[in-house]
Amino acid sequence: MADTLGKLVSAGGFLSRRKAETAVRSGRVRIDGKVILNPAERVEPGMTVTLDGRPLEAPEAPEKWYVMLNKPAGYVCTASDVHASRRALDLIVPAPPVRLFSVGRLDKESCGLILFTNDGEYADRITHPRNGIVKRYVIKVAGAVTPELRKRMLAGVTDDGEELRALSVRSLGGCRYELRLNEGKKREIRRLTAALGLPTLELERLAVGALELGRLPRGSWRRLGESEAALALAPDREVHDAPAGARKTVPDRKEDTQPQQKETER
To answer: 107, 119, 160, 241: which one is catalytic?
Structure first.
């Protein structure tokens, strides 16, 4: 992957970024024998970079890590919140030898599958709306989702200028429902159900794409291999049942079934 000359000189020459850029502008750096004065010049793989005649080697890319955590309620996903008393990242013990960040969000009151990685491209592919990665949840709401409310959840509602909608809604009995969404708007499910007069009481994420939480205990984590991590980028195995004209419609499932995961811990 191409990098900027200033960044490469900083890493390969053990200089601060500012000193590296000064070295470039002063004519001390060459690419394939040619003096380059622009620190933003792109350096492609295979190019030879020298500083004061000494070849520089691009630092080795860190080993890629993909971690799946079953987040308990009460933990925040952001690693930068210095005021948070409980961070989900702190549950990943012993800490990996790389800096991890969360892939998307799962709010403090919610639990279930959250991914951590040091692979920025992977995280972007999962979280960017253009890719439409489907995420599956089980929620408990304060009341029953009537057929009319279900239609509105699938058609979409507007909240604070944003359109919120579910791809599918399936009853699990006891005011519990399985929802699928393919956008990552902030607190989307809670805002969607609240807009319909049914506050969300419990929320658990069970899957991202074709990657499922499975039997991973609450508060536990495990490292994923690249092939397993790639499941999060794959289409989920269900047919969506959004309204005709928006997405393919499928009949409701008549029977109630119990969720595969245990009830959300509060």
So the answer is: 107
